[in-house]
Design goal:
It is a single chain. This protein is α/β, with parallel strands linked by helices. It contains twelve helices and seven strands.
Length: 370
C-alpha cells in the first residue's frame, strides 16, 4: 500500500527512538518513547499516510503485532539486507539509526521480513526449546563423562556376543552408580552431574511428547505427515521444518527456500574472476541444521520407499513424490561419494537438494502446488 510519511523505529528492550520523514516536504520529526505500542501508535497516526519499519532482531515481532492491532501499517526489515554508508560507522546512535530506517523506507529499499502469526511463532518456540533441551542434555552428559574420565573411569562393558555396550543405557547407569566417590566434595560434584543429566533427559522426553501432540493438530498434521514420508525425516524434524517455514508457499521457488536456509554456495567474483565457496549459512539455522542432520541418513540407507506414519492420510501423489525423493537422494549421495567428494561436502550438497524436495512436498501438503 502506498504511503506518504515513512517512520523509522530503532527498537531496544526498554526504549524506542522514532523518526518520521516526509519525502515530499523534507520534514523530519524525531521522538523517544518507551515500549508502549499504544503511545507509539498514537504519535504515528498524527502523520499523513504513515508506514513504520524497524530492524529484525532480538526484540522479535511483538511491537509490530501491537502496532498492527492498533491500525498502524508496520513492517520488519531484514537487517542483513540493509547496507549502511561506510561514513556512518563511526557516527552511530539511536536517532541516526531511526532516521536511516525512515529514509530506507521512503526510497523503498527495505526487504520485509515475513511476520509469523501467533500460532506459527508458538510452534517455532516449542521446536527451538526442544533443540535447546538436546544441547543441554549433550552438555550435561559431556560434563559427567569427563568427570568420570578424570577419575580414571571409562565404560567398557561388553554383551554376551562381545560387542561393546552403548553409553547412557540401563547398563551404563548401573555402572555409574557404583562409582560415587567417597570424598564428600567429589561426591557432591558427582551427584550434581548425575542430577543434571537425569533432569535434562526428563525435560527432553517431555518436550518430545509435546511436539508430537502439537504436530498431530489440524494446523500442522498435513505437512508433518507428508514430510515424514521421506527417509531421514522423523516427526520432530518435520515439525521443525514446517514450523520454521510457517507456510512453504510464501517462497516463490525451491531455490528461494534453499537460499533462505543458507544452503546456497557463497560467491566472491569480480571481473573475469569467478570464485565460489562453501554455503552462505546466512539464513534459518534451525532448519538448516535439521536438514544437514537428515541428509546423513542417505549415506547408508536403502532407496526403497519409507512407509507412511501409522494412521496418516498422506495423498498418494504426495507419497509418490516422497518415494522419488528418497531414491533420488540416495543416488545423489552415492554419485558424490564416487566422484571423490569429501563426506561433509557431499552431505551438504544432498541437504541442499533435500531442502528443494521439502519445499515441493510442503507446498503439495498445503494444496498450493498441484
Amino acid at each position: 500500500m502506498a504511503h506518504v510519511t515513512s517512520i523509522g523505529l530503532d527498537v531496544h528492550a526498554r526504549s524506542v527512538s522514532a523518526c518520521a520523514f516526509d519525502p515530499f516536504t523534507g520534514e523530519v520529526t524525531q521522538r523517544a518513547f518507551g515500549t508502549d505500542a499504544g503511545e507509539i501508535a498514537e504519535w504515528i497516526k498524527g502523520f499523513e499516510g504513515p508506514k513504520a519499519v524497524y530492524e529484525s532482531g532480538p526484540t522479535g515481532f511483538a511491537l509490530c503485532n501491537g502496532l498492527r492491532a492498533l491500525g498502524v501499517d508496520c513492517v520488519v526489515g531484514a537487517v542483513s539486507k540493509m547496507q549502511r554508508p561506510a561514513a556512518d560507522r563511526r557516527r552511530k546512535n539511536d536517532r541516526r539509526d531511526a532516521a536511516f530506517l525512515a529514509r530506507l523506507l521512503a526510497t523503498h529499499n527495505v526487504v520485509e521480513v515475513w511476520v509469523p502469526p501467533a500460532e506459527v511463532e508458538a510452534a517455532r518456540d516449542l521446536s527451538r526449546s526442544l533443540d535447546d533441551a538436546r544441547e543441554d542434555l549433550q552438555r550435561a552428559r559431556q560434563r559427567l563423562s569427563k568427570f568420570l574420565l578424570r577419575r580414571g573411569h571409562v565404560f567398557d562393558e561388553v554383551d554376551a556376543l562381545g560387542r561393546r555396550r552403548g553409553a547412557w543405557t540401563v547398563a551404563f547407569w548401573r555402572w555409574v552408580r557404583r562409582l560415587r566417590p567417597a570424598e564428600p566434595a567429589a561426591a557432591a560434584a558427582f551427584d550434581h552431574y548425575v542430577a543434571c543429566v537425569r533432569c535434562a533427559e526428563s525435560d527432553k522426553r517431555a518436550l518430545e511428547r509435546r511436539v508430537a501432540e502439537v504436530a498431530a493438530t489440524e494446523r500442522w498434521r498435513p505437512a508433518v505427515e507428508a514430510l515424514s514420508c521421506i527417509k531421514g525425516v522423523d516427526t520432530v524434524t518435520a515439525f521443525c521444518l514446517a514450523a520454521e517455514a510457517g507456510v512453504f508457499s510464501r517462497f516463490r521457488s525451491a531455490g528461494a527456500y534453499a537460499s533462505w536456509l543458507g544452503l546456497t554456495p557463497s560467491e566472491h567474483s569480480s571481473g573475469e574472476t569467478e570464485a565460489r565457496g562453501g554455503i552462505t549459512k546466512a539464513g534459518n539455522s534451525a532448519s538448516r541444521r535439521a536438514l544437514v542432520e537428515a541428509a546423513w541418513h542417505f549415506q547408508a540407507c536403502s532407496p526403497k520407499p519409507k512407509g507412511a506414519p501409522k494412521g496418516s492420510s498422506v495423498p498418494p501423489a504426495v507419497k509418490r513424490r516422497c518415494d522419488e525423493a528418497t531414491a533420488r537422494l540416495c543416488r545423489r549421495h552415492e554419485a558424490l561419494r564416487a566422484a571423490g567428494k569429501r563426506p561433509c561436502v557431499a552431505n551438504v550438497a544432498v541437504a541442499r537438494e533435500l531442502a528443494c524436495w521439502v519445499w515441493e512436498i510442503g507446498c503439495r501438503a498445503e494444496g498450493t502446488l498441484s
